[in-house]
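Why does residue order matter? Because the sequence determines the fold. Keep that principle in mind as you read this record.
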Amino acid sequence: MRYIAVGIGNPILGDDGIGLHVVREVIKRIAGSYDPSPGGIPVEVKVKEDLTVVLDEAYTGGMNLLDLILGFDRAVLIDAVSESGLEPGEVRRMDLDDMITVHSTNPHDTSLAEAVKLAKDLGEDRVPPEIMLVGINIKPSGVFSEGLSHPVREAIPEAVRLTLFLLGFPSGEGNEV
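Structure:
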């Protein structure tokens, strides 16, 4: 089996970049270190005899994101979400139908859910049968910053544990093989 975890976000829009921060921590847990240099991403790790995990970053959604996850058995996407009724920093596991993330659409693209539906309608057979989201709630600010707000930064450990659990690490710690 092949799983992929993708941290999604914009690294210069503050809390919007939370998915990138989380996947980098997951990389440290699984691969032992994170190399931000060109060629350091994606990281592929053979976790078990029958399981390989690829860890990657994306700065887009829709069709481009779909292209990144094609051919995997499971895709775990880590992204900022903005849901009323939730406080910044709250972490939720969501399914494809629930995915209204901060990046899911732009005026020149489609949402990931729409891209997946279109691909299936056109007979694409490499769409992962399992696509799930680790959503970290934020309050979009539109302010340029490479840092995270306190409540969103504090959500990283929980989001890392949930991501590792969804990648097949029962304890969510990333050290059991």
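DSSP finds five helices and six strands in the chain.
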